[in-house]
Design a protein that fits this description.
By secondary structure, the chain is α+β, with helices and mostly antiparallel strands. A seven-stranded mixed β-sheet has the order 1-2-3-4-5-7-6, with helices on both faces. It has four helices and seven strands. It is globular.
Length: 153
């Protein structure tokens, strides 16, 4: 495990909700986070800095495929490779568990996230029209992305 990398538990829910609120307009509550973290099909990994979680990724596995539910990096900690570390750590763990494909969706106007995922082997393979509405005058599409895991991930 990389230094500072944690497997997150329901006890981390409040911390994750606080970080999520700093990152997204449509943030999730601590209660929602706790419910997800109790789900045995959910894997959440985080990175800690100065005693607090500064980045995390959460994926839910169903029928051999995992959907990345969210990825958040503290705005003050961005551009340090933490999101990429989270993605690759999740990919390694999921590959070891026999997951064959990872999916996600990202707002069409979130160009930084789309580029991050492309840099880590995800391809854009679909679109969900007018899906993201929070704090927008005009809803934007969700871009569906996926990465197939082969031998060696």
């Amino acid at each position: 495990m990389s230094p500072g990398l944690l497997v997150l538990t329901p006890d981390d829910a409040a911390s994750l909700a606080g970080l999520h609120a700093r990152c997204f307009d449509d943030c999730w509550s601590a209660e929602a986070m706790r419910g997800l973290l109790k789900d045995p099909n959910v894997l959440a990994l985080g990175v800690q800095s100065a005693g607090r979680i500064c980045a995390f990724i959460m994926g839910q596995t169903v029928a051999g495929e995992t959907d990345i539910l969210t990825l958040a990096t503290d705005p003050d900690q961005r551009r340090r490779g933490l999101a990429g570390q989270m993605i690759e750590s999740l990919v390694r763990r999921l590959g070891e568990r026999g997951v064959s494909r990872i999916t996600l969706d990202v707002a069409e106007d979130n160009l930084a996230a789309r580029e991050l995922y492309r840099a880590h082997g995800f391809i854009e393979d679909g679109r969900r029209p007018r899906y993201y509405k929070a704090k927008r005058d005009i809803p934007v599409d969700a871009i569906l992305m996926s990465r197939t895991l082969g031998l060696g991930f």
